[in-house]
Amino acid sequence: MTRYAMVVDLRRCVGCQTCTAACKLANSTPPGVMWRRVVDVETGTFPNVQRVFVPTSCQHCDNPPCVAACPSEATRKRDDGIVIQDYEMCIGCGYCVTACPYEARFKVEAVDFAYGDEPMRHEAERYNDDMNGVVQKCTFCVDTIDAGIARGLTPGIDPDATPACVNSCIANALTFGDLDDPDSNVSKKLRENRYFRMHEEEGTGSNMYYLWDKGEITL
Amino acid sequence: MKQTRKVASGPWPRLQRAWDIRAAFNFVGGGTGAGLLVMALLAALDGRAWFVAAFLGLAFVAFGLFMVLLEIGKPWRAFNVFHHPQTSWMTREGVVALPLFACGGAALGLNLLGLERAGVIALAATTACALGFLYCQARILRAARGIPTWRNPALTPYILAAGPAEGASLYVALAVWTDGGTAWALPLAMALVVARALCWLWYRKGLDRTGAPEASLEVLDRMAPGFHLAGLALPLGLMAAALLGMPGGAIMATAGGLLAAIAGWQAKRVLITRAARTQGVAIPRTPVRGRGQSHAGARPGWIGR
């Protein structure tokens, strides 16, 4: 089996938001809709404070609350673990938005472009009217992955089969791959580092892992 | 056509914008409608007129569902809501609504045709469906795992208690002016209003047990004194005065009933549109950089566990 996951090395992320910009360019999301974003978290008390940059998006959970909540089966989990959204089935009720513990879903009310009423070139190229009036979210760039696999490429290794955010990261903080393959890049990183998953207590089985130190002991 | 630009930034819990006042109306309509249908059935079993209460109950449920239809992005795909009964409480709510309106329509029709006994049987089936509908609504909120103030298990009993309390209070406000009678309705409404208040306190303590966004708790705590005054103390006093046969009892019962119902509706509006914050971002550890150490993480904007 295949189970795609993303590993985020918090030690490397510098909060540059290049992945955010790459995602917006690749997926042409409307203003205010960020399938991928980097959250700036400040910890500690003065003078011992620290900033942590936390990239986040749809976590493609093993037990996705959005899938259970969706009344129309527009949200589904593929065999490879990727949670997808069928824009032609979605009724735009927004229930999945409230069901997601990661704020990863966006209900788009109407057509909106970044600058005025006319779309920019990438917005025009990627425009899909089916995505208005419904809920949208990160797909791990599933089209790229599927096209890459069809060409014999390996997601997470070959850029043409890898999500745009991972390809764009300037600090190599993002890694994508197959968690069920013990020799994959993500499996190796998880073996060699300590990690946590966000809101683990919710039992969602997030497939986004955050590395915070070297070593094999996990939280 | 421009939409309001909503940027999800910052680690703090954010007010959800997916559901607005229209969604709140669904919970108001479902709860009050179910409560009115319960009261209509009790009136029928007592041999009193029940048509108006049953009609109003169905109208409340229908109004709530119509508001949902206005809220969804693709209303002409509304029938897709029936696709996922395996796990979705919203699908189940829709499924239960079908026999609810079928039985309700039959009950009203049979009553109009003078078939009283058959009408009451259909009304009993309608009421059972309405209670199922209300239960689905309570579970819809519980399954909204991204909103800590909704997913709290203690909210389920509150929603289940609030509906009958609102319906009974509204019934009392109407019944004193019609043939419905208030001999049993007044004390029942008072008991349900007290039960609703107790469930609210249980819910609020539940949020303390599980933790919740600070801003959500602030909203709920700011609302609580008014809710307990207008939704408990004043209605109880007015209904008790009416029960004791004081002059102007009918007016007091009406005022008490309306107050209790409106306070409940307001509480639901606040729950859905004002206190519904996401849980924000949480990190249990900070990353180790260079020769540094990892420190305890952070959960900005959160109170409790």
Can you characterise this structure?
The complex is a heterodimer of chains A (219) and B (305). Chain A is α+β, with helices and mostly antiparallel strands and 219 residues long. Chain A is built from seven helices and ten strands. Chain A has helices spanning 18-27, 65-69, 95-99, 121-126, 142-150, 164-168, 185-192, and strands at 4-9, 36-45, 48-57, 75-77, 83-85, 105-107, 135-137, 174-178, 193-196, 208-214. Chain A is globular, with a radius of gyration of 17 Å. The two termini of chain A are 26 Å apart. In chain B, the strands form two sheets. Chain B has a two-stranded antiparallel ribbon. Chain B has a two-stranded antiparallel ribbon with strand order 2-3. Chain B has nine helices and four strands; from the N terminus they run αααααααβααβββ. In chain B, helix 6 (155-175) packs antiparallel against helix 7 (185-210). The model of chain B is unreliable at 1-5 (pLDDT under 50). The chains are: A alpha+beta (219), B mainly alpha (305). Chains A and B meet through strand 2, strand 3, helix 2, helix 3 and strand 10 of A and helix 3, strand 2 and strand 3 of B.
Mean pLDDT of chain B: 94
How many angstroms does the end-to-end distance of chain A come to? 26 Å
Q: Kindly estimate the percentage of residues of chain A that lie in beta strands according to DSSP.
A: 15-25%
Main-sheet strand order of chain A equals 8-1-10-9
State the helical fraction of chain A. Answer: 10-25%
Low-pLDDT regions of chain A: none
Quantity of strands of chain A, as a count = 10
Percentage of residues assigned to helices of chain B: 55-70%
Tell me the strand order in the biggest sheet of chain B.
1-4
Q: If helices are DSSP runs of H or I spanning 4 or more residues, what is the number of helices of chain A?
A: 7
Query: Rg of chain A, please?
Result: 17 Å
Return the structural class of chain B. mainly alpha
Q: Mean pLDDT of chain A, as a whole number?
A: 95
Shape of chain A: globular
Question: Termini distance of chain B?
Answer: 43 Å
What is the H/E string of chain B? HHHHHHHEHHEEE
Largest sheet of chain A, in brief, is:
4 strands, mixed
Biggest sheet features of chain B: 2 strands, antiparallel
Low-confidence stretches of chain B: 1-5
